[in-house]
Structures are given as structure tokens and as C-alpha cells.
Amino acid sequence: MKRKVLTLLTLLFALGFVFVFSAQAEAAKLKLNKTKLVLEMSTSERLKLVDPDDIEEDEEFDSLETDIDDEVDYDVKWTSSNKKVVKVDKAGVLTPVAVGSAKITAKADGKKYTCKIVVVDYTGMSEEQKKVVSYALQFVGNPYRYGGISLTKGADCSGFTYSIYKKFGYKLYHNAYRQMVDTKSVKMKNIQPGDLIFYGSSKRNCSHVAIYIGNGKVVHASTESTGIVISNYKYRKYCGVGRVLDKATYLDENGNVIDPDSQEVVDTVTQYATSK
């Protein structure tokens, strides 16, 4: 009798172990539909935990127009690392608040899933400025490496600005001071998105450079511990501003391209200069 009871208990324990293991394995398969996102002000985006086996790589997820209240998974807890930049509700819907970066975390079944969020505001930017700023923001969160120029494997401050503008045909030196000397000097009151801000105790002692992205913010390769980040442009003493873009074109309310000098509609967008 005791042997039968022992056998039964052993079987129940084994079945329980298999059940728990299967549940954990199932939970481990989940992932967020996005792990990195550049979110524009005045827009919304929904994050969702999904099983990658049930979706195609490019499949679109549920629209915000659906009845989200009927689809909320109350077992998932959503949090934002910086509510002053982006908020998240119980359904995983993101609401941008200000330009900057934050991390959204979804917690379910004791596991955490994260998505890096960068919020940008393109209001008033020219087509060229949008391209530069949006390209630069793709690399927020990537590593800093002294002497590096790789936007993915590691770059230092001037290596970051060098590589960003190289994408658009500009040739800058891999040196903050030389970049300040070689770019068009503008006053801080006239700064535009895409301009470079130089930092140091004086112009002769310029030791750091960042790209201005509007709304009082810059993106830059900061330090080994922080990597490529978004900061307030006054986060340290600045000593100059340099303009790299040769010319910028803007769209009117009808989507027509306007020449900034003549204010007339033109057929094509002004291209970037091929070199400095």
C-alpha cells in the first residue's frame, strides 16, 4: 500500500514538474512586438507581448482604433522609466510627452521585457534636418568607444558626428576642435536642428561635440558608461555652434517644397553638399 502511495505521489510530482516547465517554456517564447522605437510627438504606438511563432516578421499588430479595453491583458504590468518623456497605459499604448529617451518595461509571469523609446519632435524642421536627426536617433543606446567611428559597435563624440554626416556626403574631421573650425559658426540664438554644439572651457579647449535635435536637446556619444544618449543642450558649458548643412528646404501646408531664399515652390528638394 505504501509503495502504491509513493508511486502515485512520484507520478503527481513528475506531472507537476512537466506542467510548470511547459508553462515556463511557453512564457519564455513571448517577446515584445518592438524592442526599439523612435516615436514622434503627437502620435501613439501600442506595444504588445506576442508569441513569435504565431506572427510573421512584418505582420502589423492590432490598430489603436480597435477596442483596446476588450483586449487588455491584466496580467501584464507596464511601466515607463521616464514618464516625463513617454507614458504607457495598462494596454501598452505609448503617449509621448517630451523629446528624450526612456525604457518601457512589460512584466508578465515573473519575466521582464523591455523596449527602448526615443521621442522626437520634427515640428518646423526642413526635409534635410529631419533626415539627419532621425538617422542620428536610430543609434541612441549604442556604445561609446574612444577613437571609434562605428555607429553600432562604438564611437566617441566626434566619431559619432563624423559618421552621421558622412551618411549624407559631408566630410568632417574625426576631431571636435577641427569640426568647430571647419563648420559655419552661428550664434546660439540662431541654432537649428542638425547644427553641432561644441563643449569646453573655451573654443581653444573644445573637447566634446553633439548634434542639436531641437527642443533644447542634443544627441551625442557621451561616455563609456552611458553610450549614445539624448541630453539637455546645457548639460555642460558650451563654447560654440557650427552649421554643417549647406542649405535646407521646407514644405508648405500643401506639401510643396519651398526654396528658403526665394520662398517659391521648386520641383526637387535641395541636396546635401558632397563635401566640406
Summarize this, please?
This protein has four helices and 20 strands. The protein is of the alpha+beta class and 276 residues long. A six-stranded antiparallel β-sheet has the order 12-17-13-14-15-16. Strands 2-9-8-5 form a four-stranded mixed β-sheet, with no helix packed on it.
Q: What does this 3D model show about the protein?
A:
It is a single chain. The chain is an alpha+beta fold and 276 residues long. The relative contact order is 0.11. It has helices at 2-28, 127-137, 157-166, 176-182; strands at residues 31-32, 36-40, 45-46, 49-50, 77-80, 86-88, 93-96, 100-108, 111-120, 149-150, 154-155, 184-185, 196-200, 206-214, 217-223, 227-232, 238-243, 250-251, 257-258, 265-266. The protein contains four helices and 20 strands. The longest helix is centred in the first third of the chain and has 27 residues, at 2-28. The strands form six sheets. It has a six-stranded antiparallel beta sheet with strand order 12-17-13-14-15-16. Strands 2-9-8-5 form a four-stranded mixed beta sheet, with no helix packed on it. A three-stranded antiparallel beta sheet has the order 3-7-6, with no helix packed on it. It folds into two domains: 2-120, Immunoglobulin-like (Sandwich); 127-266, Alpha-Beta Complex (endopeptidase fold (from Nostoc punctiforme)), CATH 3.90.1720.10. Strand 8 (100-108) and strand 9 (111-120) form a beta hairpin.
